[in-house]
Design a protein that fits this description.
With 169 residues, the chain is mainly β. It is 0% helix and 54% strand. The chain has a single domain, classed as Lipocalin.
Length: 169
């Protein structure tokens, strides 16, 4: 099962459009445009490539989408995934529904803000029918660089399956 986080987030999980406030990594996730600084193209390197953690190298493209959402496209060797980063103002919750080219899908959420956020939720592999709890911890060193620690819960224990560093082009 191939899986690679889309946030950052996923997320992530977004450099602001002219009409939006100038968010930065220090205010990541604050308000409906809290991830806009991510908009653009990012080059990512995964030091732990695996079927769950994704390939060794990917390109992440984040764009402004309808309804103030962000669209996210991640691709690499034998890997392709799409998703959105969406804000629910009433609950101050970010969600990242995503789907992989092989049909696997999931939705991670967070209410955290700032340079370090953890997104978590279920991930479904349709080939096995298995649902797994996953989480991505995004740590921004600047508005143009972050790391994503990807973990999978197995038997009540979190196991690291990916450790990706992304740099904005």
């Amino acid at each position: 099962m191939k899986r690679f986080s889309l946030i950052v987030v996923t997320l992530l999980v977004v450099i602001p459009c002219a009409a939006h406030s100038a968010a930065s990594s220090s205010t990541a996730g604050v308000g409906p445009h809290g991830w806009d600084f991510m908009i653009g193209t990012w080059t990512c390197k995964n030091s732990m490539p695996s079927s769950m953690g994704g390939p060794a190298a990917t390109t992440l493209t984040v764009a402004h989408s309808a309804d103030d959402a962000l669209s996210v496209h991640v691709n690499g060797e034998n890997f392709d995934a799409m998703g959105y980063v969406v804000y629910a103002a009433k609950t101050k919750t970010w969600s990242n529904p995503s789907v992989m080219a092989n049909g696997a899908y999931g939705t991670e959420t967070t209410q955290q803000t700032g340079r370090k956020t953890t997104w978590s939720g279920p991930f479904v592999d349709p080939s096995s029918g298995k649902t797994t709890q996953v989480r991505d911890t995004y740590t921004f060193t600047s508005s143009t660089s972050y790391t994503d620690l990807y973990q999978v819960e197995t038997g009540g224990t979190w196991k690291t399956e990916g450790n990706t560093t992304c740099t904005k082009q």
